[in-house]
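In this section we walk through a basic example: taking a raw amino acid sequence and producing a predicted 3D structure, encoded as discrete structure tokens. The instruction is simple. Fold the sequence below.
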Amino acid sequence: MSGRQTPPAVLTVGQPSCAVVWINGREATVARTTGHGGSSVAVVSRGSEPESLFLAAVTRAIGDRQRILILGPSSTRLDLEREYVSLFQRPDRLIDVEPAGPVTVAGLLERLGTLSA
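The resulting token sequence is shown next.
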């Protein structure tokens, strides 16, 4: 057992809980739905942390969402997918994992709106 604890599930009424993430090796921006139909954005910087701690922090920022879209360079994107599945044991929640250049916060929020519709 790794000693990590799974964050509590996010309960929503009506719409599914969703997250859209853009990640590279240095930073991740996570746009996620809130329980009241709104959205929030979190930025997770790696700093001098090892990649494993960075990915764990991004996974915690995503939380236990029902639909997740991960964007970014291939190796980091796939590493985050593996970390998420390792923590939550729910590969079915990964709607798509696709390559993408940098995406603005507005672009992430737009994709989040589409994903949660």
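Looking at the output, two observations stand out. The longest strand covers residues 27-33. Residues 18-116 form a domain with the Nucleotidyltransferase; domain 5 fold (CATH 3.30.420.60). In the next section we compare this with other chains.
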